[in-house]
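Box 3.1 A note on notation
Throughout this textbook, protein chains are presented in two layers. The first layer is the amino acid sequence; the second is a token string describing backbone geometry. Keep the layers aligned when reading.
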Amino acid sequence: MLVAAAVCPCPPLLVPEVATGAAPELDAARAACTDAVGLLAAARPDRLYVIGPAEKGAHGVFPAGSTGSFAGFGVDLSVRLGDASPPAGGAADDADRPLPASLAVGAWLLGRTAWADAPVEGLGVEPGATPDVCAGIGRGLAGSADRVALLVLGDGSACRTVKAPGYLDERAEGFDAEAARALGAADAAALLALEPELAYELKAAGRAPWQVLAGAAENADLDGRLLFEDAPYGVGYFVAAWS
């Protein structure tokens, strides 16, 4: 059963070493993410799943001990998901796959808060997965242990300004406003109602992971709080805590 969730953005710029001179611009987002992950620990979960968007070929399960790197962003920095010991048995082959960027940011967040409260597993979700598929994945995760927590990574639209990665799209602000409202209210039905085609056009990679969360939250009766909302660089970033 889902007992807690933290929703965080996942731009590599969240990592100060990647952002370099621009690092202070996301200090408020980092602080909110730290608070949200801290609330996960307070829920005393039996298992934590880290969920984020992953392109085709990089989706699927990533066991504890999987590693990721920010070398592609010009930084010699590696991270490890969950415990520092390499996985045993059949999981070793999966652990050889590098974490997708979103899960690498998640691993960095957990390392920043020295997570040691429950076993960790990563899950990369295809951005094009349908709401039904996402919800089904979430239900499966919620049913995997008595007390399940989720760290859900994903950004809103990337079309809020003319300098945004997807240029300016007048629909972006409304999409982000509804996503922020749903995340802050722990409104699973509203998250499931986010349109995949519109999310794709607005480059909102968080849509699929948020809908996994929505499926996991069915019948969980959780309360939500929006801890951070902004659109630096023209991209919607949200931090929320469900408990």
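Residues 27-42 form the longest helix (16 residues). The longest strand covers residues 2-8.
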